[in-house]
Amino acid sequence: EPSITVFNTLNKTRSGLVSLYIDHEIIEPGSNFSINYPDGKHVPVQSVSSRSDGTHWVLWVKDVPPMGYRSLIIKTEEGKKISGMVEPYQGKFENDHWSVILDPETGSISSLVDKARQKEMVDTNSEWKPGQLIYERLSNRRQLELYTLREEPKRTSLTNVSFGNIEAGSIWTAIHVKGYLEDCSDVPVKIEYRFYNEKPLIEINYSLIKNPVVRPEALYVAFPFMEENGEIVFEAQGGAVRPGKDQLAGTSSDWNTVQNYVSIRSEEGQILIVSPEIPLFHLGGLNIGNFSYHHDPVSNHVYSWVLNNYWTTNFRASQEGNLSWRYFLTSTDDPGIQKATDFGWQSRIPLTGRVFPEGRNDQSIDYTSILNEEYPGLLMVNAMPSNNDQGIIFQFREIAGETIEFIPDQFFSLYPNAKWTEVNVVGEHLRDINDIINIKPNSVHFLQVSWNKTTN
User: Fold this and answer.
1) From 318's CA, which of 42, 52, 129, 171 has a CA 20 to 30 Å away?
2) Phi and psi at residue 51, to the nearest 5°
3) Would you give the end-to-end CA distance of the chain in angstroms?
């Protein structure tokens, strides 16, 4: 039978979305079919788009093992035709996780209630709303070179907003919004809100066609959320940072480069924002022109900085063309950095899959992993071949703030008699590891496992 193999490249068991293109020779258009685990349980499936030769499908796959895979079986000529429900949007949407009201004037979120936490996430006192596009224009660039903003920016948002139907599927329910934005083409800007069924997850997709403009301009997406007694934390290259507290004074603070996630965190929980495509964020407000030496965010508001042409260096003076990007949002009562890190990495590094046509007979293995043990507070940042191609170098980072007793022989199962050493960042030998290595809180280690291919 035709099958699908879903791969997980992270070092933790995870459930999530996998996107696949399946040829119509395997699943004919309009046919009845199902995608199952080997034990017969169904996998939620939803179509995204279709061409003459195949269809793009998304699957929600559970419990894919760390650095391993899970197999699925495509059952044709049984099951049911996969179709979604379409109904008009009536101004409010609810599922098991959220209660949502979209603003009819801007297409943004005017109310977002986390049902599990019984909490309104939107700061209703904010000028802007979550998900709202903000187009900004400056009178000139010279004022930024002088480190002072002499004139207030002009800011506008979507106009002539309209709502499409609610499209309910087995994985998410989507609400489509269209509108027009200054200095974009006559083709409407499109926003798609996806509210997932399996867990409290929201995905927001944007697409627009930008006209070439040489005068100074910028585009933001607003996320003015509210977490009582909360603070902003974001992941940089190697750890979590509180703006203004965990960074050197005088470094860039009006905007920051985010590695994977932004968290609005309190003792009661946190709101998490991830964008796989847009790394720049204004934290605490729209900070353009502040040039703060010591940044102290005045609010929990976060603004994603999608584009700008403010710089007078060797960048192009205009930015134009088809632009598309997205965000993943969630809310949780777990305020830990480990929770935030897991959400950020899993949102930015999706599960990947491959479709195999019928004809193979070796489908007896449901799932497997090359790792024997999971360490919840240990993040595998990277895994790459060693310099001599006789092993693997793992880069680990401790993210839970606790010492981990790492036992190499119990971690890696592919070669049980492998040799473990600690190396530096370029793979040079530091010391042999014969027993346990203590990975201290928030530390980074490079560990090499090597083996003799002729004897194992």
Assistant:
1) 129
2) -125, 180
3) 34
Residue showing tokens 């793009």: 56
Q: List pLDDT tens digits, range 163-206.
A: 998 999 999 999 999 999 999 999 999 999 999 999 999 999 99
Q: Which amino acid makes up residue 130?
A: P
Which of 222 and 376 is assigned the larger pLDDT?
222
Number of residues assigned to the chain: 456
pLDDT band at 453 (very low <50, low <70, confident <90, very high): low
**For residue 188, which of 201, 197, 177, 199 has the smallest C-alpha distance?**
177
pLDDT, one tens digit per residue, over 8-25 is 999 999 999 999 999 999
Q: Which of 24, 20, 93, 87 is nearest to 58 (CA)?
A: 20
The proportion of the chain whose per-residue pLDDT surpasses 90, expressed as a percent, equals 71
Per DSSP, what are the bridge partners of residue 432? 421
Contacts of 266 (CB under 8 A, 6+ apart): 227, 228, 229, 230, 231, 335
Contact 331, 199 (CB under 8 A): no
Beta strands 444-450 and 419-423, pairing class? antiparallel
In angstroms, the CA 140 to CA 147 distance is 13
- Tell me how far CA of residue 301 lies from CA of 185, 208, 314, 386, in angstroms: 29, 24, 31, 43
Asked if 302 and 265 touch (Cβ cutoff 8 Å), the reply is: no
Distance in angstroms (rounded) separating the CA atoms of residues 10 and 150: 48
